[in-house]
Structures are given as structure tokens and as C-alpha cells.
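Summary: Need help interpreting a holo structure output

Steps to reproduce:
1. Submit the protein chain below together with the SMILES for zinc ion.
2. Request a joint structure prediction with the ligand placed.
3. Inspect the C-alpha cell block that comes back.

Expected: a single structure record containing both the chain and the bound molecule.
Actual: see attached output.

Input attached:
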Amino acid sequence: MKLHKPQSLLRILSLFCIFLGFCLNIYAINEYNVNPLPTSNNIDIPNPNVVIVLDPGHGGYDKGCTGHKSHEKDVNLLIAKKLRQSIEYMIPGVEIILTRDSDSFVSLEKRVQIANQSKADLFLSIHCNSLAEGHATGSETHIAGLDFVNADQHEYLKRHNFIHPDALKELKKNPISNAEKMVLLKQSLDLAEMVQSSLHDNLPYKSRGIKESGFTVLKYLKMAGVLVEVGFLSNKNQEQYINSEKGLEEISYALASSVNTFITDTNLIERKKEAYKTFVSKFGSARSFIEETYSIEILITKGSPLLYFEPKWDNLESIYIVKENDHYFYRTGYFTNYQAAQNALPGIQQLGFDNPQIVNVPSKN
Ligand SMILES: [Zn+2]
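--- attached output ---
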């Protein structure tokens, strides 16, 4: 009898632990499912296509530099859109993502996040230059440089408040090793050389060469990336050229050619197809992993489901309500890739849903 009491206590305690474990587990599952950042379901699913991210610098209230008659943000966007057409024409089958395709403000961290999350192969940030002396001329290309390889940089930057907490969180979650950084640096330098030599060959002004810079949009990328200053808006003639149909045509042709050279020289299209084939042979059908892995979450309610749906809900093509614990998640659409979900976001917002979020959802299969 003496032993009975402690035994009961032990049993209650262990039951409580099991219960606690169960609760924590459920909580973890919930966290995973409501995470607005897409994760790869713990399996690194290769994209059989080459993905290129074009990043028109500045936007919204951030005008960039100003010429005599144009703002950099507008010129950058014009070039990016033209470049998208040129690449699509020159290299069929590549996926092109713009970090913004309207006059909107996108933070530097968000630009990096878009590129990293879409597992892009190549990142090209587009800018125009400016100097007080009006006659400065030429194009130049920037890469992240050697400080990017410094192992202590994250801590150093954090101490000096140079790094946005979100970017730091992202890096801590998924850091890049120094070996990987060296490879990326080499690839970025190769890309920069191709970009700069193509600009030199195709534009009617001089090349100012390749420079090392600690730009945020380059430093945290997990792919080859460069930032190109296509010319000077502070130079009247150059501003006129960049804004002209001929100028836009030549700049986008020059950039698209260098992207094409990079893809061809690194055998990128074949290597990606090969990686995908290996994945399929390892996991059987890759379709079950790839299909329908994203959805758009429009609302979460706690405790009880929504009893009245406003008329705007009728305009959604589909609604899925998922109950987990005491939360109800209201989602619309299933998408095979993140970009497709992102393309659908503006349409959902137009229907009057203020803050739709792309979420990872389990595959239907
Ligand atoms: Zn700029």
C-alpha cells in the first residue's frame, strides 16, 4: 500500500507528460500549416525549369535617382519588363519572376526572400546610376564581394543594426555555408563578366567594369546574383537613350544575351532536367510532391466557424475550410508552385480580401 500512492502519482505524471507532448505536437502541426512562408515539406523538390528573378530597383515612394525627366524606379521597371520579353523569346521554357511588376515599394529583404523562396538559379537587380557631375557615363555591374564570405558577418551586422531582423531570422533558419558562398561568389563573378562584356558590346557607351559592393539584395542570395547599373540618368544624353525605344531594346537584348550565355555555359537547362529525373527515379512519381502544394489563406477564425459569408465570398472559385484544433482556416485555390499562387494574389485582393497569405498545404494525393 505504501507504494501505491507514488505509483499513482507517477502514472498521473506520465499521463500528463503524454498529454503535454500531444498538445505540443498539435501546436507544432498548426504552426507548420499556418506558416505563411512556403517550406519544401522537408523534401527539396527540384524545379525542372530554370528560374530567373528580375529585380527592378526601388519603387513606390522610393524613387531611386532622378534624371532630368525620369525617375529611376520607372526606368528600372520598364527595362525589367522588356528584359522579361527578351529572355522569354531567346530562352523558351525558363520561369521569370519579377520582384515587382508595378510601381510599388518592396523592401530589400522581401526581394531576397522572393528569390530564395522561389529557388531561383539567377538573380538580376536592375538600376540606373547618377552622379552630381552630369557628364559621368557608362554601365557597371556589382557583385556581393568577399565580405559576403566572412563567417562572422551575420553577428557583426546584427551588432551594428545593419541587418533586418526578418533577414536574420531567415538566415539563421537556413544558413549558407562558406563553401556554398564561395561557389555562389564565383558564379556571380562569371555572370557579372558576361553581363558587363555584353553591355560593353551592345550599348553606345563605355563599360565601367565590375565592382564589389555589400548590397543587401546581393549578400543574402542563395544563387548567382548581380546588380547592374545600366547607365547614368544624371547624364542628359544617356537618360534620353535609356528612355528611348532603341535604348530599351538594346539594353534588354544585351542583358538577355548574357543571361543566355550564363545558362548555356553552365549547362543549366540540362543539369536541372537531370536533377529532376534523379528525383523522380528516387521518389517514384514526383507529381504527388509537386502538385497542389500551395493555397491562399484568406481568413482564420478561432473557436467557431464563420456563420455568415459576405457576398464577396461567392466570387471565389473555390473555398476550403480546414479545422485544426480550435482554429478554422479558410483557403482558396490549389497551386503547383509558389509563383502561380503569387500570381493569383492580386485577384483575391481585388475581391475585397485584405491580407491573403500563401500557405503550404499537404498535397491532395
Ligand atoms: Zn538604384
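--- end attachment ---

Reviewer comment: Residues 57-58, 64, 72, 127 surround zinc ion (CB under 6 Å). Residues 1-7, 12-42, 285-291 have pLDDT under 50 and may be disordered.
Status: needs-info
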